From TrEMBL:
This is Ferritin-like domain-containing protein. Keywords: Coiled coil. Pfam families: DUF892. Residues 49-76 form a coiled coil. It comes from the Bacteria. The keyword Calcium does not apply.
C-alpha cells in the first residue's frame, strides 16, 4: 500500500477518534450531573472526563503535526448521538446499571480504535504519534478495567438501595 494511502487512512482514523472522544464527553457529562448515590462512580467519571479532554488535545496535536484539522461535522454528529444515548437511560429505573454497561462497551470500543490507530501509525511511519496514542489507549483500558472491577459492587449497592426503599437514583 502506498505511503500516502496509509496516511489518508491514518488521518481519517484520527478524525474519527477525535469525534469519538467528543461523543464520550457528551455521554459522560450528563451522567455525572445525575449521580447522587454513587460517589465512587462520580469521582471516577469526573476523572475520566478530564482524561478525555487530554485525549482530545493529544489527537489535535497529532493532527496538527500532520497539518490536518479535525472533522467538525463528525464531532457534532457523534456528540449529538452521544447526548441522545445518555438521555435514553435517564428514564430507566436501573439507569446506573445501564450506564455502567454502556460505558464498559464504549471504553472497549475506544481501546480497539486506539489499538488499530497504533498499527496504522507504525505502518505509515508516524512514530511521533505513537506516544500520544499509547497514552489514550492506556487510559481507556484503565477505565474499562475499573468498570469491570467495580460492576459487582455497583450492582450490589443498587440492589441494597432498592431493597431499603430508596430510589437508587443515579
Amino acid at each position: 500500500m502506498a505511503e500516502n494511502e496509509i496516511r489518508d487512512i491514518f488521518v481519517i482514523g484520527l478524525r474519527n477518534a477525535h469525534a469519538m472522544e467528543n461523543q464520550a464527553l457528551s455521554i459522560m457529562k450528563p451522567q455525572l450531573k445525575r449521580i447522587e448515590n454513587y460517589p465512587e462512580v462520580a469521582e471516577k467519571l469526573d476523572r475520566h472526563i478530564r482524561e478525555t479532554d487530554g485525549q482530545i488535545v493529544r489527537l489535535e496535536e497529532i493532527l496538527d503535526g500532520l497539518n490536518e484539522d479535525k472533522s467538525t461535522l463528525k464531532d457534532l454528529a457523534l456528540s449529538f448521538t452521544g447526548s441522545m444515548a445518555a438521555l435514553g437511560h435517564t428514564v430507566a429505573g436501573d439507569e446506573i446499571l445501564k450506564n455502567a454497561f454502556a460505558n464498559y462497551a464504549f471504553e472497549n470500543f475506544e481501546a480497539a480504535a486506539y489499538k488499530s490507530l497504533l498499527v496504522i501509525a507504525e505502518a505509515g511511519g508516524h512514530g511521533a504519534a505513537v506516544t500520544g496514542l499509547q497514552a489514550n489507549l492506556a487510559e481507556e483500558l484503565a477505565m474499562a478495567e475499573w468498570i469491570n472491577d467495580n460492576l459487582v459492587a455497583l450492582t450490589t449497592k443498587f440492589l441494597s438501595l432498592r431493597e431499603a426503599g430508596e430510589t437508587a437514583k443515579v
